[in-house]
From TrEMBL:
Residues 192-273 form the Pirin C-terminal domain. Belongs to the pirin family. PANTHER family: PIRIN (PTHR13903:SF8), PIRIN-RELATED (PTHR13903). Residues 39-132 form the Pirin N-terminal domain. Transmembrane segments: none annotated. Residues 14-23 have a biased composition (Gly residues). This is Pirin family protein. It holds the Pfam family Pirin. Residues 1-31 are annotated as: Disordered.
Amino acid sequence: MSNLEPDPSEILCGPGGGAGGETLEGRAVPLGGPRAMTVTRTLPHVHRRMIGAWCFVDAYGPEQAEMRVAPHPHTGLQTVSWLVAGEVLHRDSLGSLQAIRPGSLNLMTAGRGISHSEESRLGTLHGVQLWVALPGGHREVAPAFEHHAVLPVLSGPGYAATVFMGALGGIRSPATAYSPLVGAEIAVDGDAEVPLDPAYEHGLLLLDGEVAALPPGPLLYVPPGREVVRLSGAGRVLLVGGEPFAEEIVMWWNFVGRSHDEITAFRKEWMEGDGFGTVRGYDGAPLPAPVLPGTRLKARGRVR
């Protein structure tokens, strides 16, 4: 998915939360088009830039909507598409054509550069779009696309967790990951204790239903050191986490880089039609890149 804000700014971080966790309120961002749906963006946040290598969390639905995100570029990241309801068609400049449905995973590794589009017919849509920042040693890997229709499940009293990225409780996703992390959908039914890696920081987002201490909308940040999270109720919860990301990054529009000059070069390549390939089969023009801000972008860490 693209960041469709017409004037995207560099988003700074605030102080971290205490041992009890930190609530990250989302902000509404329209995705454009005649039947535009609005997503709730909780990462990046004014108080926190990343959770592990996860640098972007958009949640949308459930609502009757039509998704039309025209071809746009990415660098230095992976896009992780996860649906609760509906169907979205992915096209990319590698020639991939893949519908995603609930319970399956679309994973696109941008690496040194890729472009893609996403679209759906008018109908119920409910899901999340996530980005993972690639660490320095892998951020220029060759672009790639993976679809995983079957994913492993970690089960325990009161819960079943579908692990779509990384590992949870010894269960590992087949999806390619370049840093220690976890991404899972936890179906809660009763009282549950879900194991966590104490070396990771985590984020929890209610997807549907009612789960104690997780109101709909905000992302709950949990700092490293926690070995278990207790959940109670009936619903579905998104869990993301990973080792705190040690590198400073620049994230602007749909690019993750390391400097202002790098972002400027990515934008120039996209606008001049070089370096990102062509998405074939989408009925419409590619998205133009926004104008860069008047001040230089700065590489920053996960917290201020």
